[in-house]
Amino acid sequence: MKKEMICIMCPMGxxxxxxxxxxxxxxxxxxxxxxxVFAKEELSCPKRTVTTSVKTxxxxxxxxxxxxxxxxxxxxxxxxxxxxxxxxxxxxxIIIQNVLNTxxxxxxxxxx
Length: 112
Ligand code: SF4
Known about the structure:
The chain has helices at residues 33-44, 74-83; strands spanning 2-6, 15-21, 24-28, 47-48, 51-56, 59-65, 69-70, 94-96, 106-108. Strand 1 (2-6) and strand 2 form a beta hairpin. The chain folds into 2 domains: 2-44, no CATH class; 51-108, CPE0013-like fold, CATH 3.10.530. The protein has 2 helices and 9 strands, in the order βββαββββαββ. It starts with a strand and ends with a strand. The longest helix has 12 residues, at 33-44. By secondary structure, it is an alpha+beta fold. Bound molecules: iron/sulfur cluster. The site of iron/sulfur cluster has 11 residues, from helix 1.
């Protein structure tokens, strides 16, 4: 099995090639080890940081997860954020702790 992908870990965007050779997963095209780690994770359990917005009484504020979460949980995470009815929030405030037991929090990323 051979799979090609672009590394999203930095702006270099290396073209990665991932091949399973027996029990071993071999990554080529990566400019650094982060690309190899990313490619292997993409095959087993791909993750993404969720960036979205949350409703408050003062309007809509941007928020994000503090770490990537499994792609399979992204829509569930969005639904958890959508349920919130917040008065007001501050930059950096945790609005959901350990969202869906992923180990990541959801924090506010906007002022006001
Ligand atoms: S492999 Fe390394 S250098 Fe290349 S895009 Fe990924 S993080 Fe950047």
